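FORM 12-B: Structure-to-Sequence Request
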């Protein structure tokens, strides 16, 4: 199965996945629900990282649980190489019928005021400030 259930994607383009970085992938997986994946090592040019990859290609909570990543020691985040275009994530809303369970699953991994959880049919909404105003992807 392909990662992030890409083989089953249907409909209009929309946010499908997000990633949480942790200095210890093992620590992140210890706090993650079953099905969050097994560690795999990756390398591209000078970049190295490890990422948890689910066997089925689908992350828990209908894909709304984040992919987990650990950057290589001493390796700068790839975004540091990019020019600042003025794009800023202002909110990420995860909507799921088991929103409280998802909130508990995320509690040991991330605390970010931009992250919101709501009850409803599974979907992800990302809000950005841009040089051209607010944009919403859903």
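FORM 12-B RESPONSE
SEQUENCE OUT:
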């Amino acid at each position: 199965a392909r990662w992030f259930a890409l083989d089953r994607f249907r409909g209009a383009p929309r946010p499908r996945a997000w990633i949480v970085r942790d200095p210890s992938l093992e620590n992140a997986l210890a706090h993650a629900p079953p099905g969050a994946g097994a560690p795999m090592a990756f390398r591209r040019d000078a970049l190295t990282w490890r990422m948890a990859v689910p066997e089925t290609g689908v992350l828990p909570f209908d894909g709304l649980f984040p992919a987990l990543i650990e950057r290589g020691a001493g390796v700068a985040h790839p975004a540091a190489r990019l020019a600042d275009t003025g794009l800023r994530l202002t909110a990420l809303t995860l909507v799921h019928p088991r929103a409280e369970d998802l909130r508990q699953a995320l509690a040991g991994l991330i605390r970010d005021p931009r992250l919101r959880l709501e009850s409803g049919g599974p979907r992800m909404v990302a809000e950005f400030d841009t040089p051209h105003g607010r944009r919403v992807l859903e």
